[in-house]
Amino acid sequence: MGALKIVVTVKQVPDPNSTLALEADNSIARDKEVVLDPGDECGVEEGLQLKEAHGGEVILVCMGPERAKDAIRKGLSMGADRGVLISDPQLAGSDALLTARALAAAIRAENPDLVICGTESYDGSTGMVPPMLAELLGVPQLTVAKKVEVDGANLKIHRQTSDGYQVIESSMPALITVTAAIAEPRYASLKGIMAARSKEIKLVSLSDLGVERSESVETIQGMSDAESRKSGKVIEDDGSAVDQIVKMLSEAKVI
Amino acid sequence: MARVWVYAEMSGGTVAPTTLELMTKARELGEVEAIALGAGSKSAAITLGKHGAKVVHVNEDSAFDDFVAEPATDALAALFKQQAPDLILFGFTPDSRDVAGRLAARIGAGVISNAGDVVAEGSGFLAKVQYFGGAKVASMRADGRPAIVLVRPKSFEASESGGTAEVRQLEVSIGDASRRSHITERVVEASEKVKLEDAKVVVGGGRGMGGPDNFVLLENLAHELGGAVGASRAVVDAGWVPYSMQVGQTGKSVRPGVYIAVGISGAMQHTVGMKASKVIIAINKDAEAPIMKMADLGVVGDALKIVPALTAAVKAKKA
After folding, report:
1. Using a CB-CB distance cutoff of 8 angstroms, which residues of chain A are in contact with residue B293?
2. Is residue A252 part of a domain?
3. Which pLDDT belongs to residue A19?
4. Which residue in the set A126, A135, A226 is minimally distant from B134, CB to CB?
5. In a domain, A221, yes or no
6. Do B183 and A242 touch (CB under 8 A)?
7. B112 touches A at CB < 8 Å
8. Contact yes or no for B273/B251 (Cβ under 8 A)
9. Chain A contact set for B131 (CB, 8 A)
10. How many domains are there within chain A?
11. Is A253 exposed, middle or buried (0-12, 13-18, 19+ CB in 10 A)?
12. How far apart are CA B185 and CA A138, in angstroms?
C-alpha cells in the first residue's frame, strides 16, 4: 500500500485550564473557553507523522455545534488537509451511540485506511465512542497505542498496559486509539495558521449522512459537585513535621 | 429480580480483581451471572461463584486471549440472543472498554461509562458518574434493556458471599473476521515489588519533586513503609516515570490506607484516582495547593528535606 488515507476524530471541549461552567440544563457552556481536546491534538500529530512518513491525506472529522469549526481549524493549522463537521441541532445531548453512528457515517463516506481517535475525551471520559465506531465501521480496533508503525497494508502498535505493553498487529483498514505518550503535538506555525484559513471544512447534517436520531436511553437526573474530603490540619514544617507524620502513620497502623 | 451479567475480565489466566469488586456490587442488584472467556475461565468460575455468581458462562478458546475485543463481543452477543439480561456490568478498564463499546454498538444498547456507583431504582438503574476530571458527579438513569454500565476499579471493596456457581459452556464460533487485531507479544516493563493498586501505603510524587532523580527518595520511603510509588500525570507526561505509575483519571485508581502526596498540587485529574484513600498526608511547598484542602495532614515545607528525614524516622521506629 502506498499513500495512507487517515481520518482523525476531533472534539471541542471546555478548556481544561479554565473554570467549568454548567448551564441549568446540565449542558456544558461551550461558548466560554473551548479548545481542541488535548488528547485529540496527539491524535492529529500522530496522523501527520504517519502522513509525512508514508504520504497521503489527513482528514479531521468532528461532531459539534458550528463553533466546533475552531477545533477543526486548529488541527488544520497543525497541518491536516481538510475537515468534516457534523453539525445538527438534533444531535444536542446525543449519547455515545448516536455520536458513534453519526461519526461512522461521515467516516464511511471517506473510506479511510486508518481511523485515529483519542482514548477518551477530556470532558465526557466515557471512552466508548472508539470501540463503537470500530464495530459500526466493521474494522478491528487497536487501542491505547503509545507507538504506531505502518508497514504496507499492516499496522502494528504498542498498547500501553498497567505493567508494560502489548504488541498488537492487524491489517488495515483499522481503528486505533492513542495515548498522550504517542507524540508531542506540534505548534501551529504562522504559515500553517494562514494556510488553514483556506482549507475546506465541509458541514454535514444528520440527514446528509442518512442517520436517524435515536433517543438516548440514559438520562441525566442531576448534577452535583463531587464529594470533597474534609480538610484536616495544615502545618508549617518547623522541624516537628516528621514526628507528626510518623504519629499519623502509627495511628493508621501502617507502622 | 433483575438479571445482572458481570463481564469477568481475565488477566494471565485469572480473574481481574476489579471483576470481584463488581461481583460484590452486582449481587445487591439482582441475580448474577458471570461471563469468563479465555484461558483459566473454568477455574475462575469457582472464584466467581464464591463472590455470588449463580451461573458462570465459560469458554476457554485461546482466541479470547489472542485477539482484541471481537471474539468476546461475538460470545456476549451470542449469549444475549438466548437470554437478555437487565444489566451488564463491565470494569472501566482498557480491556473491558474495548468489549463493552463493541457490544453496545452491535446490540444497540445504551452505555453509562466511568461510573463510580450503580444502584437499582424503580424499573431501571441509577449510576453515579464523575465528569470533568472528577469535579462533578452526575446521576444518570439507564432505562434501556439491557443497560450497560462500566464502573471504575476500586469503586467497591470485594468480598466473598460463599457459594458455588453452575458452570455452563458458552457455545460460539469465532470466525476469521473476528481474528484481526492480534496480540502477538506481551511485554512486562515494570517489575513492581508491591503492586500500586494493592499497596496499603502509596507515596505519590509530582512536579514538586524537582526531577526524576529525586524519585529514589520516594522509593526509599515506600520501601520502609512496605508500599508503592505513584505519580501525577504531569511527571508521567514529562517522562520522569513510566505510565504504569500514574494515579488519576487517565491512570490507576488507588484506595490505600495512607496516601502520601509529595510535591503534588492536587489537580482534579490526579485526586479522582486517590481521594478514596483512608488517610491523606500532603507535603508541599505551597500552602494554597488544592491537595492541602483535602489532606488529613498537610505539611508546608521542602519535600527533598522532609522525605529523607521521614524515611529515617520510620526506619528507626520499626527497629
Report:
1. 228, 231
2. no
3. 58
4. A226
5. no
6. no
7. yes
8. yes
9. 123-125, 223
10. 1
11. exposed
12. 24
* Rounded-to-integer distance, Cα B199 and Cα B203, Å: 10
CATH number where A103 lies: 3.40.50.620
Domain that holds residue A102: 4-209
Task: Write down the ipTM of this complex.
Answer: 0.89
∠B251-B255-B258 over CA atoms, to 5°?
115
* Spans of all domains in chain B: 3-178, 196-318
CATH of domain B196-318: 3.40.50.1220
Q: Report DSSP state, residue A150.
A: E
Q: Which fold has domain B3-178?
A: Rossmann fold (3.40.50)
B196-318 shares the fold of B3-178:
yes
CA Rg, chain B, in Å? 21
> Do A103 and A61 touch, CB atoms closer than 8 A?
yes
For residues B228 and B199, is the Cβ–Cβ distance under 8 A? yes
Domain assignment present for A226: no
What single string gives the DSSP state of each residue in B75-141?
HHHHHHHH---SEEEEESSHHHHHHHHHHHHHHT--EEEEEEEEEEETTEEEEEEEEGGGTEEEEEE
Quick: pLDDT tens for B98-109: 999 999 999 999
Report the amino acid identity of residue B57.
Answer: H
> How far apart are the C-alpha atoms of B123 and B261, rounded to whole Å?
43
Q: Per residue in B230-258, pLDDT tens?
A: 999 999 988 899 888 999 987 888 999 99
